[in-house]
Amino acid sequence: MKKPGILRTRIAFDKRSEASDGYGNVKGDWVEQFAVDARRMPLKGGEDVMAGRLAGRQSFILQIRSSSVTRAIDASWRARDARVSGVFYNIRTITNPDERNQYLDILVEQGVADG
Predict the structure, then answer these.
(1) What is the pLDDT of residues 48-104, one digit of tens each?
(2) Where is 81: in which H helix or E strand?
(3) Which of 24, 36, 40, 56 is the most buried (most CB within 10 A)?
């Protein structure tokens, strides 16, 4: 059981809209889908984490409550700090750590171009 009050960060989740650019490519602007309270936990060790830091990237776990809405998130979306302008996170993986659909852990990386 999680302690109340640990979800202290507000995270918005954005999905690309699908729009043709006139040259056969389908890519659009980011559109906010929803915002939820989250716990943001920086990853501290491991070779990949240290190599990422040297390259100007920081990895985090965003822990959010699981719901039918949040379970729609996938790696093609991005996360964004809803309280601090300009802080974006690329989504790498999403897991259900307790396998009971109470929380989702989302591995994200900050400092990566989101194209």
Answers:
(1) 655 555 556 789 999 999 999 999 999 999 999 999 888 999 999 999 998 899 999
(2) strand 78-81
(3) 36
Give the Cα separation of 46 and 2 in Å (integer). 26
The fraction of the chain above a pLDDT of 70, given in percent, is 83
Q: How many beta carbons lie within 10 A of that of residue 87, not counting itself?
A: 13
Whether the CB-CB separation of 97 and 105 falls below 8 Å is answered with yes
In a domain, 16, yes or no: no
54 lies in some domain: yes
Give yes or no for residue 46 having a pLDDT over 70. no
Rounded distance between C-alpha atoms, residue 95 and residue 32, angstroms: 22
Enumerate helices (H) and strands (E) in the chain, giving the number of each: 1, 6
Cα 115 from chain centroid (whole Å): 15
Q: What's the structural domain count of the chain?
A: 1
